[in-house]
Protein 1
Amino acid sequence: MKPPTDPRPIEPKAKTAALAESDDPYPVAFDSQLGLKQLIAAVRKSDPGGFALGMAPILGYDLPPRVYEALHSAVLNAEIQSPTIELVADDTETALYDATSRTIRLQRNFLSRAIGNPEFRWTLMGSLLLAFSHHLSTILRNDLVPQLTDAQSPISPDLVLEDGPLYSVAMAQMALPKRDDVRIGTYTLANGDSASIRTSYRGAIERISLQRIEVALPQSLTDPAGPSARFEAGPGGSGHHTHESIESHMVSIGFSETEMQAITFGNWMRDHSQLVDPKLVRAKDTPRNFPSVLSRQTLTQIVDVLAARKFSDVRQNNSSDYSVTNEKLGVYRPSEHIDNPKVLTVPTVDPITRDPDFEPWVLTGDPLLEVDYATSMKRYIHRSEETMREDLIAAMSLGRTEAGLRKLGAGLHILEDFFAHSNFVELCLIKHGYDVLPWTAPANCINRLPLVTGTFGAADAFASIAGTIAGLLKPNFDWQFTPTTPGYRSDSEKMMLILLKESGRWDMYEAFSTYLKLRDEWAATPVSGWVELYRWITSIPARLVGNAFNAMFRAVVTLIGDSVGSIQTLLGADPHTDSTIDPTHSQLAKDHADHPLHGLAAGLASIAASQVATSMVRRWEDGPHAPHPAVIATSFFIHPEDGHSSLDEYVKNWAAANPHLIRRAASKSTMDHTHLKLQHIGRLSFQQFVRESQLTLGYLAEHFVALFKRLF
């Protein structure tokens, strides 16, 4: 993107020649009032409640609303001053705020570059505004909190998010100046001459906004091929293989584009059923405890919102077949994903009591966890094989219909997971002489090293859909009301209504519903007759409310999604040396694109899925004389040592072309490095989910409802 132009870069008070002839051409002093002016403009455009809603997501939910309201009053009474700015030469930060002296330490060399080069001015502006936000946080916590709160209220130190551009973007939207040409600050030279640095406000905010998006969203959400991309539901990309990309070639087999959508829908729902996990679902007769547990219906509705976006084209003409219901989606069942069903910690609540569709817990000592001597596979894998077989037989029976195609997609999901979730790929490479980690120890079976899959933890429930939900709920920087068709609800609004209803905060739910109804009335009425109402609607912080909630939820699912299996990872024992230790899902699964064997697993899955889909088409067309799709599918559920010639050649060719990935797959330290990092993140993720959710709802309830009482 071309950088914004700077129409008036320097406005000298003295002649340019005098500046050029100065003994010291570097600035010796700098003053900026931009942050304070921006704050004043924002305060003048909002009431105390709306100001609190806008500032809390940036400066901290731990501060009571009355503290932000006090800041609002102090600004109106001219009681807030800009921090002094000290030019320094030794700081690594462009602008660093010192809370003790309440001074901004600004790099002198960087200021010099900003004076001479407009390219640096937007960065200077963003750095100064971030430092000013720390100044505000210091005032709030050190000055206003002691005056307004009791000593028992736990107030943390400065909690301005490291996501610095958030403050700049949020304040810019709340206080856009009438003139685009703004003064960042004024510098003084050694000879006493001074001049101001100016820039395009909208241009600078545009650049800061882009930085905000790049910094705030992890690579897994901004780059489909990034290091956190997974073998999951979705279109995939270069080097990133998903269930959908594995099946994309089936058009050449004879499926139409519409039929492919139905197959993908069945596979996609099977993947997203992981969200309905027994650790996350509350029973029908238990009280609400949002967000620790949610109802099955709420979780199903969330997936339905995702489906409405994902399959929008076919859903418009066939809403019933492409809607998500409890029956279609089901619940998380380890057998449908070939996950090791072993329960590491005996739970206090049997999942069957939460919903009868869950599979019973499998505890240590259960025969399902044993290695079958003849097949050299864990016995629970045969249960998954049978589930896949039932799906494919149902698809044969239902025929080439929407329902039959959905069942085919569900069965193919299990087949594809066989290669992604087991150590089949590792055992294939070992069979051909490569020294890679098998993620298992020798056992009493014909082939010595058994075929196993990983145990599945609560954090894994969000693994396949975290990025999707995060993208759905990511903050929208355009907070102005946009006229819509009466009755229209955006995906984020649908999601917000679902979650508010689940939370049990009926005052919040009714308030937000009232706002949407009011918007519908305005949208159905000529604008000329509703000018005052329109002004009120555009002034209320509805978009800020949505942003606060969305920012919280996006951060939550990102943390949980990136900590896949983290809590149960590295339990203090090595599955390579102890046959009683099972690997975890996050250790073994090749879902992530950064796993060295991700591409090989996807290639094998594609070969298997293609053969099964081809046989299904022939079965539908030629009847019982054609090969049986379920027989072909189950033929892949074998230990590599027992042979599958259609895969061996592919494995050898891939290994020969990727020696660097083989080396990575052979290094325990390399594989463990990622797991340790995930473990550290995972220990805090769910606690933060609970804390931030409750705090956000509290703010919404206290202020959003009050705003609506002005009309009703």
Note: DSSP finds 29 helices and nine strands in the chain.
Protein 2
Amino acid sequence: MELNENKDKLRAYRERAKALVAQMTLEEKVEQTLYNSPAVERLGIKAYNWWNEALHGVARAGTATVFPQAIGMAATFDEDLLEQVGDAVSTEARAKFNMQQRGKDTDIYKGLTFWAPNVNIFRDPRWGRGHETFGEDPYLTSRLGVRYVQGLQGHDENYLKAAACAKHFAVHSGPEALRHEFDAVATKQDMRETYFPAFRACVQEGHVEAVMGAYNRTNGVPCCGSHELLIDILRDEWGFEGHVTSDCWAIRDFYEGHKVTSNAQESVAMAMTNGCDLNCGTLYSYLVQAVKEGLVEESRIDEAVTNLFTSRMKLGVFDQKEDNPFDRIPYSVVDSKEMRALNREVSTRSIVLLKNENNILPLDRKRLKTVGVIGPNADSRSALVGNYEGTASRYVTVLEGIQDYLGDDVRVMYSLGCHLYKDRTTGLAEANDRSSEVRGICAESDVIIAVMGMDATLEGEQGDTSNEYGCGDKPDLRLPGIQHDILKIAKESGKPVILVVLCGSATALTWEQEHLDAIVQGWYPGAQGGKAIADILFGEANPQGKLPVTFYRSTEELPDFEDYSMKGRTYRYMTQEALYPFGYGLSYTTYDYSNVGFAGAPDIRQGVEIHFTVKNTGAMDGTETVQAYVKAKREDAPNAQLKGIRKVTLRAGEEKTLTIRLSPEAFQLYNEDGIAEYAAEGYEISIGGSQPDARSCALTGTKTHLLQIV
């Protein structure tokens, strides 16, 4: 039994919370709706700060394991691994909380309510915060989101290990510069097919404890004050029983940005009345006045505080220490040897091999005398971590990972190559001031490893970036600054060039795909990222990552950034050929599929089970990501959509017979009214290591297996 199944315990928590609320004054209750809730000493209520972050590790509160950024973890396509990471993060969270409580430290980032995961859909590669998400696909985002929530919250029958939060509900993915005033207009069909599924899964399957509203409006109404989103859909339709929080200072936007209210009192009344229990910000202090003016019923505030106290009781923070098993987690687990090993494993499994001309990778260290490492991200710690990050006790950059791996046997020569986004590395220098050094290193080296890309100062949240990119969104999909020019210099040397890209989103690598020998997508690979990338480059590990986003050829292919229609967006609706498709990623070995068929007569309304055999036909052990796609044969249907995943590890020459079960929901489409229905025209199911599209088949040299349901 888990806590979400222990109805007696849940009822007891809620009744206990109600009894506590009944003893409080209006002023005391209102104070509890603020993220930095003060103590109520006469009732034995301790101060509590609700604001904490755990996007890819415990963030902003000192030393913790810094896992790969969320988009990198998404590239593993591995929901079991995501739960394992979530469990590791909540273990460190409890250890740090226990330590902090002993010191009576209740500051920001010191609680057990974590505002993660971000399950928004990465609908446009220009969006700066896209690397916080699990990519562009609703199914993949749902599966990974649910399991990360379960890892964070644990499986105890009496207590939550930590409280997760699905954000930002519901239709939210840029532009960052406009988020405080923007109206994201979406059809009912797109909301049900694309923007809602991950939130619904986190609520109904993951039993996520909190949901955060978005900054923007959706179809004219601010998300943090939307009766349709927060009450009609979230609570009444999906059965959500946790608490709702605003995004930070989002309620202020009601009158300052969206201009749907006139002042603070009207804004807090709109948010509270329509289901927002907690204010990340300070505006809810106006609720006392709003109640006295008749704008808000005090009973609604009672309900909100009851929701909040119930969450704290689920965490056990109102109970005696010996009652809660998580209170016994020692601080020594933080940044432990076991955590570092898991971090390296996750990083290794997140890396995607995009190109490997003539099998140049893996490199054979015995055949190398000098390796040239160039590029602004080669020795960058910032390029390891993304945003919403913790603090690692050691960071291993790509340069350091290569140096550590090769030791004294192989000479490693290094050049910064260029600034990350400027045309010179120092203000007094001329443009391209490291180009001669790059030429010199290339001339001396047997192979060039160029480490390019971005970091979170270029792509990130509005206000977090600190350069001419400004708002955090990308102006285009190109490598910034003069990185492309440095790659051309490396290519002109005649030496093999391997490109490692560290960034959190799709990059237009058309020239690189045509001219370079190998391309590795490393994402923001975490504090152990340099070790993981070295493991991939030199064959200590076999790449298994798959793209959770489409890589386009140029910005010109994309619809308008402010258009929230899914038409022409992502692999599910695009009509042009991708540079690198969603679900694509190469391996150092090959896999063969056989005996693909239905287990019994297929019935889409009962679910369909497919059996198949996968054999590792290469010379290296590896892990295949089996992907099942469903395409409705109806004329207006989306492209084939991911609906099933199986990870299988195989030794060289080994084969296994497996099954994938597709639920009835895998075959449902939504009409213009947002109603789920089946396609009378039938379906095509694809099983293989990629999408069934022509570009994936051309890049991998393999075809997927197709099954028909008439």
Note: The domain at 342-549 is CATH 3.40.50.1700 (Rossmann fold).
Protein 3
Amino acid sequence: MKTSDKLWKDLLNGKVPEQLGQEVDQFETEIGLRKQGKIEEKVFAETRLRRGAYGQRYDNGQRYDGTESRKLPFADKPTKGPGTVWDAPGMLRIKVPFGGLNPRQLEVMAELAEEYSDGIAHVTTRQDFQLHFIHIENTPTIMRRLAAVGITTREACGNAVRNVTACPLAGVCHDEPFDVTPYSKALAWFLMGHPDTMEFGRKFKPAFSGCAQHACGLVQMHDIGYTALVRPGADGKLQRGFKIVVGGGLGPVPRQARILTEFAPVEEMLPLTQAVCRVFGKHGEKKNRNGARIKFLVDKWGIEKFREEVFATRKELREDPRWLGMLQDIEKEEEGPLHPPGQLPAFGGNDRLYEWVKGNVRDQRQAGYVTAAINLPLGDITADQLRSLADIVAKYTRGTIRTTVEQNFLIRWISKTDVPALFADLDRVELAAPGATSIVDVTSCPGTDTCKLGISSSRGLGGELRNQLVAKSYQLDEAVKGLHIKVSGCFNSCGGHYVSDLGFYGVSRTINGYKVPHFQVLLGGEWEHNAGSYGLPIIAIPSKRVPAAVDFVTEFYVKNRLKDERFHAFVKRVGKGPVRALLEPLNQNFPTHEADPGFYSDWGDPRQYSIGDIGIGECAGEVVSRYQFEMTAAERLVFEAGQHLDQDRLQAAGETAYAAFLRAAKALVQIQFDDVSNDPDEIVAEFKERFFDTQVFFDPFVGPKFANDFFAAHAVRGEKFTADTTHHRIAEAQLFIEAVHNCYNKLRSAPAPATKA
């Protein structure tokens, strides 16, 4: 019997898979070998990532390097581990396929958060759990305790198949043709450790949705996505299947997934996915990580060639009994209730209960039952709250609870009769906050708190926005309450800023000689229709003025929208120009550092964000004014490109985005060479010689990517643009502009060269 077959059968029988235990033993051995210097760090890094263990940032931006002690958030607790470079406290990501959990698993998660972390468990935007400040020498013990309740961290990170996400309403939604839960579970265990998934150049994220119109599955922004469908079969009965899409993703430059097949019978789900994985593993980029996601292979080949290769590979696959075996009797799998159905009792003047029911409770398609969302601030829940939640779930259901892509919990199969008692129990442990999935339910990535890529504090801003919106929630217009706000600490969109009504991602600017945290404001994203469209940046504003920006935009929406007009449609109708004009005053009348030092710090961190060293012996005023003049023009051009795109002037949009590239590059070049002309070839040549060949422009994490985007745009200038290529070019131009700002800040902060006596 194959190891993968044994794993599958153990899981189906509710046993702790022997394979998981053996793999943890192997990992513990590798940790010991790494301590002894017998495994290279590069090799060990990929090993630990495939086990879910990440490195972590410390002290709000200062990375732990082993040279000095860092004060951790739980400084009153003894730290564990020797504190060397490679085993400094990090983050452990824990896979939760389709978000499904039971009370015992919640209890174990609470124990681990309390014993090995800072007492907080974090729910991610892909339904995982994360524990921060974990020492790697403790991870084998944690992994064994998780395995004992059927949970693994395997392939939660690294170049592997990540967590298989699914709509948390699957099985109880009114609009689905069938429950995708058992299929997502089958795919998760089928792909884990599969030989055809071991040669990926980057991560691979699958997602399931029960319908096309809602956002619960977000399949359009995934590497591979499955939407449930039914159609008449040869025998006249309805046949289950999936519309399968590939090549979606967010990241710096987002991609909408393309259709692989309009309908694949459920029997073809596993073999067809295996074929996709084999094609990606064989032909995907390996050397350049910036182009190694499957979306770039789909772009390079085109969906027609990619589709042909996948179906040809499917025909070549050796028959695997698990293709059908893992789906055996799957249609009979169904959750059930603990209590009989009922009717919702009268609220009796309880306004808080009314608001909670209105925002957090939803009818199931099964009469007499509802789901209840647990609104977690920024996805965080304490160990004590997790224990209480486990008891509550066991009290009212058969253990039917799931995490959601909006960093919340969803309890299912609650009898309507039990709703007031459930609310009271949740309220006692501070888990009855109203407004789940509303504007107050702000989503944020970890940002500068723990992520090495964070530029501005996304959690700090997200928390502040949440607090301010909650404080005035009773005054908010109903149309505003339905908006989504998502915040990322950098351009990588881990917070989902591209697909929200109001999106923000962290950038940095220099004001009065000081670096100041900023956020780009994005408009045009659509959360519904499984992440139906992506937004574009319109303006960068100081972080401390973002709450005012939210007020400006929402008030403008309420005042000028048509009856029943959703925000996405409103932005499309009025255009981004009026909104940008509305926000431009936020980039004026900056206070001096002496008058308002708090303006120059990030949310949640009273320290100065950073200091720009003007340098000695330079005509700083002249250089700054010329640089700012050119960069203002570049940012105006990239915004105008977005306006052209909104009006379907694709060629004008693409050419304007290219012009923005040139203007930003010239801004940087003229710092060193003030005689540069407007000739594109000269600008490119000077930029390459002064900033690319010297690697001064390289980003510490993505290297030459943004410069290469510029060179590629220059090489194909004059090309005919499509809607997709135009959107990509605009997004790339915006990222290049941000990279120019970062390079400029780095140059201004560098020590002045020594002068001769």
Note: The CA atoms of residues 633 and 692 lie 22 Å apart.
